[in-house]
Amino acid sequence: MHEAIQNIRQWGSAERHAEAGMKTGPDKNHSRSGDLSRQASAWLVQLEDAPEDDILRAEFMDWLATSPAHLAAWEETARVSDLIVLAGPSPQITSSLASGSARRTWFRNIRPASALASLATAACLAWIAVPYVALHFQSDAITGAGELRQVTLDDGSRVQLAPTTAIAFSNDAAGRRLKLLRGEAWFDVTHDEAHPFKVIAGDNTVTVLGTAFSVRKTDSGTDVAVQRGRVAVTASDGTRSDRVELVAGQSVSTDGTVVTRGTVRPDRVASWRDGITIVNDLPVGDVIDRIRPWYKGYIIARGPGLSNRHVSGIYDLRDPDLALKALARAHKVTVSHVSPWLRIVTVR
User: Domain FecR N-terminal: where (predicted)?
Assistant: First the structure.
C-alpha cells in the first residue's frame, strides 16, 4: 500500500510539472486527459491523508464541479460504479476497514493494473466512512439516506428521525437530555416535571414545556417548529445567549444569537414524516438542503441563485430526482445527471 501511495504521489508531482509545459498539436487532447487523471490521483492522496478535513472536501467538490472532464477523470480513477457496490454491507470491505494487517495483505495481492482503482476505492470509502463510523459510536440511533425511523425512549417519549439523522439520549438525576448530533427529528415528549427534557443541537438548547415539535440542525444553527404545546429555545454563540418561547404554530431559526421568528401551520410541522417538504419563500439552496438527505448519492449545488432566488411549493422527498425536476421546471435551475450517484444543480 505504501508503494502504491508513493506512486500516486509521484503522479501528482508529475501533474504539476505537466501543467507548466502542456503539449500542443495532435497529442494535446491526450495530454490534457493525462493531466486530469493525475489531478484526480493527487486528490485521492490528499483525501486519504486528511479524511476529516472539511475544507479539503469542499475544495475537492469545487474541482469536481468545475468541468464534466473533471468528473469523468474522477469517475475513471475511482471507478465509482465499483465504489457504490462495495459501499454496501460487504464482508470484504468490513474486513479491509477493520484490520490493518488484512488491508496491507489485500493491497499486496492486487494486480498492478488495478492498483490505482483499488486504492481509489479504499480512499473514497475512508473519506465517506470515517466520519460516519465516528457518528455511529456517539449515537444511540441513526438513519441513512432516505430512511425514516421512529424511536421510543426509555421515558416513553417518541422521536421520529429524518434521513441522515443521529441522536444520543441520557436520562439521569440532572434530567432528560437528547443530543441531536446531525439532521432533523420530530418529538412527542412525555410530561415529567421532575425530569425536564432538553434537546441540544450544537450551541442551541430546546427546553420542553410539554409539547410536540421538530428540531433541525443546520450548518449555522437550528430550526425549531412547534406543533403542540410550548418550548423555550436558547441560542448561544459562546459569549452570550438569547431565549425565546414558542407555542403551537410558531417557529424559529437561529444563527449564533441571531433569532428569526416565523409561523407555521401546526399540521405542516415535520411534513417530511409524510415524505414531502412544504416551503414558503425559501432560498433554493435551503430547498436543496432538504432534498439532499433523501438522495442516495451526492447532490452538488452551485450558482449565484442559491441564496438570492426564493421559491415556494410542495416537493416530493421520496423521489429526489422528481423534486429537483420540479425546481428546474419553474425556477431557472439546471440539473445535470452525471451518473446514477451524482447530480449537479446549477441555479442561475
Answer: 38-79
